[in-house]
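Dear support,

Our group has been running a series of protein-ligand predictions, and this particular one with G3I is the one our PI (initials K.S.) wants archived with full inputs and outputs. We had some confusion internally about which version of the output was final, so please treat the block below as the authoritative record. The input we submitted was:
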Amino acid sequence: VEKGLKDYYSSYFPIGVAVTPQQLKDSAQRRLILTHFNSLTAENAMKMGPIHPQEDRYEWTGADAIVNFAVANGLKVRGHNLCWHSQVPKWMFYDKAGNLVTKEVLLGRLKEHIKAVVGRYKGKIYAWDVVNEAVSDNPKEFLRNSLWYQICGEDFIAKAFEYAHEADPKAILFYNDYNTESPEKRQRIFKLLKKLIDAGVPVHAVGLQGHWSIKDPSKEMLGAAIQQYADLGIKVQVTELDVSIYTDGNIPENAGAEGASGFSPELQKLQANQYANFFQIFRQYKGSITGVTFWNLSDRYSWLDNFPVRGRKNYPLLFDKDLQPKAAYWNVVKF
Ligand code: G3I
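Confirmed final output from the archive:
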């Protein structure tokens, strides 16, 4: 059997990948997944909108396909996610007359949702991103001004963790976010986590999404962030890793300056170096890092192909569009 990424990292942490149910039907992609990865995340199939489109109807097909594939092949599954401001089904926040529901009603709906989804995959999904991206990007604000927040205040966060813990007491429960290493946003994320932990809320780990670039973050910044979270006594995973070849970050206003530069040899080298840097830090913090998951399988398709510039192709992963390992791959397995 061909040696893969997961084998090089077997004494460190599981290596995951975000997938769609459709990808699992393609034999070449299936083979690549099974060679290199031992953990799966559903890119969209378990989110509230796709899985719970109407109050009285769940759509399990996609999520079941991913979980069944994982169980059949001995892969772990991370659940993503239970409570987020995006991809929420239309019915969730409103009553039949089209008015916003009360806090009591909304928390009741959240509880039902979490009970059903976590309950269905109990024992098969070992970790859940319970709350995703609840912290604001605005330094003047603590939490994101989402409808969850507007209707419930900050209580929805603790409640989501409690409901998930009740539904599967063995699951490892995550708070997941992006820019988790930026010293500025990190203070707010740390504050939230500390508050939850001090209040006895069952939050066990923090997910650093890891939507990074050939420029950011520095090794020092990343290491300091991992250490700061680990000092809270919780585990850390990198949950959505990719390394954009553009340096405009996830900020639409800045995007486009570099245009469609393509994937030049120079960019390939910068990206390979950056991947080497990140994995060096992950290995160094082995005791705290319990998983690293890539957000998409290969450069054939990445969510970054359309973000933040519609139609602009990106090349953020370890495998190229023909599913072949890139320079970045060889750097990650060379240590
Ligand atoms: O499924 C519908 C399809 O029926 C419709 O025709 C089409 C038209 O736009 O949309 C399809 O849904 C899209 C969905 O992906 C599935 O392809 C949504 O529009 C699109 O918004 C959605 O994007 C996803 C995004 O989350 C939503 O914000 C990306 O695939 C997914 O990679 C991305 O993942 C997030 C993580 O969950 C959280 N962290 C950030 C990360 C990247 O944004």
